[in-house]
TrEMBL record:
It comes from Sulfolobus acidocaldarius (strain ATCC 33909 / DSM 639 / JCM 8929 / NBRC 15157 / NCIMB 11770). It comes from the Archaea. Keywords: ATP-binding, Nucleotide-binding, Transport. Residues 2-222 form the ABC transporter domain. This is Copper transport ATP-binding protein.
Amino acid sequence: MIVSEGITKKYGNRVVLNNFSLTITRGEIVTLLGPNGAGKTTFVRIVLALIRPSGGKIEIFGKDPFKDKSVFSRLGYVQELPNLPPFLTGRQVLLLSANIKGARKDEVDELLGVIGMVENADKQISKYSKGMVQRIAIAEALLGNPEILIMDEPNIGIDPIFNLNVRSLLNKLKKSGTLILMTSHDLEEVKKIADRLILINKGNKMFEGSTEELIKKFLGIR
Ligand code: ATP
């Protein structure tokens, strides 16, 4: 459902993504793992057609996202450090978003339950912890049942309650056929969730495989 072929991104002479190819299909949880500045967000922003690559090809559902924006109605996105309106409540944010997306209003109640935010749904975002904001942002992305969920640095570890639920939520989505792509700089955080890890450094793909293979290759242990 997402195919990237030889994507390169340059800023002046600086190459921040180098000939990056990746294919992700439905029902898969894939993590782009790499240190700060590795090129993870750049890749995500290219997938979202927010920045143009300098070379290469990207397809979502077999379509060019730069030409056919309709693909985004089937995709949910959680940005790094979600910026939600502080004066609204979590429920209001979700209801507003449900309206825009044409999602069912009862989906809001359902998702508030899934993310464990029923009790706090009517408090203002400004009163939320970072983890609670993150949960609302994930619920917002899941409104309308997207077939692709992209999360940029979800920082799952900042929220112990969500950390407990996140794996089961993502696995449930995966079983229903959702493609999940997330970025992280923390192997600990994603090693139990990801089916496939892509290690990226300075714009180059260094490794692609399972967590076990990664640990074996780079740490020489099981
Ligand atoms: P982080 O974990 O910090 O978000 P990342 O892996 O997502 O890191 P990117 O944000 O993709 O990294 O950045 C990759 C490189 O591209 C960085 O060195 C960054 O400074 C550079 N970069 C990003 N945007 C621009 C821009 N508009 N102009 C010049 N360089 C840029």
